[in-house]
Structure formats: structure tokens, C-alpha cells
């Protein structure tokens, strides 16, 4: 029986061909290759979309530093109409705005220093210091911090007056802040801004609008450049 089966000629031995058989084998190989390419391409698209979503999420989480401005400034001793040189108090109000709509801000003590930027020796002279105690600021909130301080001496106060009759005070603000994101607190970030305030003959701020405080060193990195990796160095778990 085995000998009989071995003697039966096959299609190739008979010289017969089935039309389309070879094309069918080639098409099958092409389909397998096409499926592999489609699978690879879909994976690339999925990874790219995931990276895009993560990048957008990180941009949303990146905190923005508070905006600081001087809204009120009054020195009675420089009010020519009062002629009151004995009242040397310096009265002011600093406003701190939280621009983040979903992040609170924890402020350490806020240190303010007032100096005269223009003197005979072209060097600044310290006039007074003031400290705002630490506080918390909610989302999109504005904090108005009123202060009153005395100059180190009356001579430094008079040094702020220019020949034009205007007085100029350099106000420097320094503090460190932490951002509250959901249940987490970030590490501390340094905030250093300053502004020059002109005071007229009535002893009040010459400009009716607030004086925006800016970073004196424009080369300093913004808070966003610290975000977000690694998470362990950026976040501190806490309530």
C-alpha cells in the first residue's frame, strides 16, 4: 500500500498548476507585513498622544509666582503743607496677588527693606526695615499688607529727597513661598522683587496707580524652570 501511495504522482509531477496559488501565498505575506506595520504605527501614535497629555498636564500644574505691587506710600515728614518733621513714620501697603486658579501659596516671613537709591556717593543708603509675618493665600486671592515703620535716623530719610523736590525710595521684598497643589506642598522657592517709589511734596506716592515690583535680575530663572522633575524634589506630602 505504501508503495502504491508513493507511486501516485503529485500536481507538480503532472505539470499542473492551480491558477492564483502563488499569488495567494504572496498576498498572505503582504497582509502579515501590513498588520505589523499598522500595529507599530498605532503604538507610535498612542505613545505620542500619551506624551502630549502628560506635557499638557505638567504645564497646567506648573505654578506661577505671586505678583507684588506697592499700592500706598505716605511719609508725613515729607509733606510740605504740614511742616511736620517730627512725624518720621513711613506708612505703606503692599499687595500680593496669587495668579494661580488651583494652587494656594504659603508665604514665609516677607522681608521689606526701604533705602535711598540716589545719594551723594551714588550708593544706596538703608532707610528702614519691616517684616510681614508668614501667611497663607488661597486660589486667585489678593493680600493687602499694611505696614508702618520708623527710619533708622532722620538723616537717611532726608537723603531720599532729590533736588527736584521728589523723594525716591527703593523698596526690596524678599521671601520664600511654597505652593499647595491638592494635598501636596512644593519645596520652597525664592521670591525677590523690588521697585522705586516716587514721593511728591505732599508726602504721598506720586503715581496714582500701583507700582509693580519686578525681579531686579532678569537673568534669574522663573519658577517654571524648576518644574517638574524629579517629583520627589519638587513635592512634599502634607496637609
UniProtKB/TrEMBL annotation:
Subcellular location: Membrane
Biological process, per Gene Ontology: defense response to other organism
TM regions (residue ranges): 32-56
Top-level taxon of origin: Eukaryota
InterPro entries assigned: NDR1-like
Keywords noted in UniProt: Membrane, Transmembrane, Transmembrane helix
GO cellular component, as recorded: plasma membrane; plasmodesma
Name of the protein in its database record: Late embryogenesis abundant protein LEA-2 subgroup domain-containing protein
Amino acid at each position: 500500500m505504501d508503495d502504491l501511495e508513493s507511486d501516485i504522482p503529485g500536481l507538480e509531477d503532472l505539470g499542473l498548476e492551480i491558477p492564483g496559488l502563488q499569488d495567494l501565498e504572496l498576498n498572505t505575506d503582504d497582509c502579515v507585513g501590513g498588520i505589523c506595520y499598522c500595529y507599530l504605527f498605532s503604538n507610535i501614535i498612542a505613545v505620542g498622544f500619551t506624551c502630549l497629555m502628560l506635557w499638557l498636564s505638567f504645564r497646567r500644574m506648573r505654578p506661577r509666582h505671586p505678583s507684588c505691587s506697592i499700592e500706598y506710600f505716605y511719609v508725613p515728614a515729607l509733606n510740605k503743607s504740614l511742616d511736620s518733621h517730627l512725624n518720621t513714620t513711613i506708612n505703606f501697603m503692599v499687595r500680593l496677588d496669587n495668579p494661580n486658579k488651583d494652587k494656594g501659596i504659603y508665604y514665609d516671613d516677607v522681608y521689606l527693606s526701604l533705602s535711598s537709591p540716589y545719594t551723594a556717593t551714588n550708593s544706596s543708603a538703608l532707610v528702614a526695615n519691616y517684616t510681614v509675618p508668614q501667611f497663607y493665600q488661597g486660589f486667585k486671592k489678593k493680600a493687602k499688607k499694611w505696614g508702618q515703620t520708623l527710619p533708622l535716623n532722620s538723616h537717611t530719610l532726608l537723603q531720599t529727597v532729590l533736588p527736584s523736590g521728589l523723594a525716591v525710595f527703593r523698596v526690596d521684598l524678599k521671601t520664600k513661598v511654597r505652593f499647595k497643589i491638592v494635598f501636596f506642598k512644593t519645596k520652597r522657592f525664592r521670591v525677590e522683587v523690588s521697585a522705586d517709589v516716587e514721593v511728591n511734596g505732599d508726602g504721598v506716592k506720586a503715581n496714582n496707580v500701583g507700582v509693580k515690583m519686578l525681579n531686579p535680575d532678569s537673568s534669574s530663572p522663573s519658577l517654571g524652570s524648576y518644574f517638574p522633575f524629579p517629583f520627589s524634589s519638587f513635592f512634599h506630602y502634607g496637609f
